[in-house]
Amino acid sequence: MPEPEKGQGEYSIILSSIRHGAQLTVASAELARILSIDLKIAASIVKRAPIILFKDVSKEEVDLAKPHLVSLARVGLDFKITISPPVNVPKVNWPTKPDFLQLFREPPAAAPVQVLPSAVAVSVQVICPCCGSSLQLHMLPLG
After folding, report:
1. Three-state secondary-structure class, residue 72
2. How many angstroms separate the Cα of 51 from the Cα of each of 12, 15, 112?
């Protein structure tokens, strides 16, 4: 078998499923944030799982993407990395192949936490990445 040309790969990254109990809105928002895409596009991708997210990915690109896939797995998205993608699974048609070096150059940042100001104290809303439940923390001033 000939070596893949430079810039081409042999792997596919598939969004294989959404775990039971995962919140679609939370998973879509996190996918949009990680991939720097529009929320509506991310929601469409998530709803169509299983779907080939990236095709013809090199080993180096897979290694760059793995920490981000782990981050997405925390919100209920399951991925499969394979050298033989299924034929009957739809794929995302990117206008141009995403630049993995640009897209995944830094480790995934934690999801932003919403801070709500209060007249008495600071309130922080934390969203569970698994179930999407919201927890409100109130930090009261000492004294």
Report:
1. helix
2. 10, 5, 27
